[in-house]
C-alpha cells in the first residue's frame, strides 16, 4: 500500500493565514519560506489541525479581523478529501472508496508524531530510544536484557569488592616459610623425647656393662693362671660386647628441647601460615566468581548487540547503546541538525508506514548544502516533508507574505464592519 501524502492544501483565515494554496512535491522537501510573522508556521498548524483533530486546534484559530471562520481543504494522494469549515470547523472526510468515518479514519493513516515532530525532537534520549525500540518490536526484550545486565553488573561489582578485600587481607598476613605445615603437639614432642631418653638409658647400661667387663678382664688377667678357663669365657663376652657397642650412637634431644621451649612461637607461625593460606583460597574463590560473572555479563551484552544488529532499524548506522539513540557513532546531542532530522523522520515513518509525510518547522538552522542533502535523502526514501524556513531565497518552494502566497492571486476578503456614532 502506498504511503499517505498530501497532494493539495488550501487554507483560509487560520491564525496569520489569509488565503494559501500549496501543492507539495510528492517526494522530497517542500519549503515554505518568508520573513518572521508572515504565516509560515500557521500553514503547518493548519495541516496538523485538519488531519490530527481538535487536539491540534490552535487556541485562537480564526485569523484576527476575519469575519469568515477558518476553512481547511486537503486532498491526499489516495483521493481522500479532508475539510474543516463552518462556525464550529466541523470535520468532513470524503473517501473515494466509499469508507465512512471521520477522525477515526484519518488516525489509521496519520502518524501523530508526523504532525508534531518537535514532540519527538524534544523528548529525552531515553524516550527517543524507547520509541524506536517499541516500533521495531524489541523494546521488552531489550529492557529484560538491560535489567539482567544491571543485576549481573551489580552482583559482579559486589563480588569484585569482596575479592579485592580478601586479596588485600591475604597480602597483609605474615608468613613464615621455615615453620612446619601443621600445628606442633607438645605431647608428641615430649613422647619423642622420652623415647630418645629411654634409648639413651639403654645405651648407658650397655656402656656400663662394657666397663664392668673391662674391669673383670683386668682382674682375670691378674689371676690369669688361676682363672684361665674363666678368662677365655670373659674374653669371648668382651668381644661380643665390643662389637655391640661399636655401632651405638647417642641422639641429641637439643632440637626437641628447643621445640618444646618454643612451641607457642612455632604454633603462632603455623597458625599465621594457615590463616594466610585460607585468605588466599578465599580470594581465589571470589576472583573465580568475579570472572564467572564477567563472562555472564559479556554474554548478556553480546545478546543485546545481536538483538539490535538483527533488528529492522529504520536507518543504517542507527542503533541504541546504553539506552540512547546513536547514529553514525554519535549520540543525539552530538548529531548534526540534518542527522537529527533524518533520524526523527525515519523513526516517525517506521512508527506508521502508512503515513508518508512529516511536518518540519524552522529549517533555517540548515545551510543550503545541508538542506539539499536532506532533500535528496527524502526523495531517495520516498518521503514527503513540508517545512518552514525564515528565508526568501530560491530554495523555498513558496514564499508567504502577510498571510498570502507571494505571486498567487489573492481572493477578496470581506472587510470587518466597524461602528461609528450616528451611523446604522
TrEMBL record:
It holds the Pfam family AAA_15. Transmembrane segments: none annotated. Keywords: Coiled coil. Residues 196-310 form a coiled coil. InterPro entries: AAA_GajA/Old/RecF-like, P-loop_NTPase. Residues 5-304 form the Endonuclease GajA/Old nuclease/RecF-like AAA domain. The keyword Coiled coil applies. This is Chromosome segregation protein SMC. It comes from Eisenbergiella massiliensis.
Amino acid at each position: 500500500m502506498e504511503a499517505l501524502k498530501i497532494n493539495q492544501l488550501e487554507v483560509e483565515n487560520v491564525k496569520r493565514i489569509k488565503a494559501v494554496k500549496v501543492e507539495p512535491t510528492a517526494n522530497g522537501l517542500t519549503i515554505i519560506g518568508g520573513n518572521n510573522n508572515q504565516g509560515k508556521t500557521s500553514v503547518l498548524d493548519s495541516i496538523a489541525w485538519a488531519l490530527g483533530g481538535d487536539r491540534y486546534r490552535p487556541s485562537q484559530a480564526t485569523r484576527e479581523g476575519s469575519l469568515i471562520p477558518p476553512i481547511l481543504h486537503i486532498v491526499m494522494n489516495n483521493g481522500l478529501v479532508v475539510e474543516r469549515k463552518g462556525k464550529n470547523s466541523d470535520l468532513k472526510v470524503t473517501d473515494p472508496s466509499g469508507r465512512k468515518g471521520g477522525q477515526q479514519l484519518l488516525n489509521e493513516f496519520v502518524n501523530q508524531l508526523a504532525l508534531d515532530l518537535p514532540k519527538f525532537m524534544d523528548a529525552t534520549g531515553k524516550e527517543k530510544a524507547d520509541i524506536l525500540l517499541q516500533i521495531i518490536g524489541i523494546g521488552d526484550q531489550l529492557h529484560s536484557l538491560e535489567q539482567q545486565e544491571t543485576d549481573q553488573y551489580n552482583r559482579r561489582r559486589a563480588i569484585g569488592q569482596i575479592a579485592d578485600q580478601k586479596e588485600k587481607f591475604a597480602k597483609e598476613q605474615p608468613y613464615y616459610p621455615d615453620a612446619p605445615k601443621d600445628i606442633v603437639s607438645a605431647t608428641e614432642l615430649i613422647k619423642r623425647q622420652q623415647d630418645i631418653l629411654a634409648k639413651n638409658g639403654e645405651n648407658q647400661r650397655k656402656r656400663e656393662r662394657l666397663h664392668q667387663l673391662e674391669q673383670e678382664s683386668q682382674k682375670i688377667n691378674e689371676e690369669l693362671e688361676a682363672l684361665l678357663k674363666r678368662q677365655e669365657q670373659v674374653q669371648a663376652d668382651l668381644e661380643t660386647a665390643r662389637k655391640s657397642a661399636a655401632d651405638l650412637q647417642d641422639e641429641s634431644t637439643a632440637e626437641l628441647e628447643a621445640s618444646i621451649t618454643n612451641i607457642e612461637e612455632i604454633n603462632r607461625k603455623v597458625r599465621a601460615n594457615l590463616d594466610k593460606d585460607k585468605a588466599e583460597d578465599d580470594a581465589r574463590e571470589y576472583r573465580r566468581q568475579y570472572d564467572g560473572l564477567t563472562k555472564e555479563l559479556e554474554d548478556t551484552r553480546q545478546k543485546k548487540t545481536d538483538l539490535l544488529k538483527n533488528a529492522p532499524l529504520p536507518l543504517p548506522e542507527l542503533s541504541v547503546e546504553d539506552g540512547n539513540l546513536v547514529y553514525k557513532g554519535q549520540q543525539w546531542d552530538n548529531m548534526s541538525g540534518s542527522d537529527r532530522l533524518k533520524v526523527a523522520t525515519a523513526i516517525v515513518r517506521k512508527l506508521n508506514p502508512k503515513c508518508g509525510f512529516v511536518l518540519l518547522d524552522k529549517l533555517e538552522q540548515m545551510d543550503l548544502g545541508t538542506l539539499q542533502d536532506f532533500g535528496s535523502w527524502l526523495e531517495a526514501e520516498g518521503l514527503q516533508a513540508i517545512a518552514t524556513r525564515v528565508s526568501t531565497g530560491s530554495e523555498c518552494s513558496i514564499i508567504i507574505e502577510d498571510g498570502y502566497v507571494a505571486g498567487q492571486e489573492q481572493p477578496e476578503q470581506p472587510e470587518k464592519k466597524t461602528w461609528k456614532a450616528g451611523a446604522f
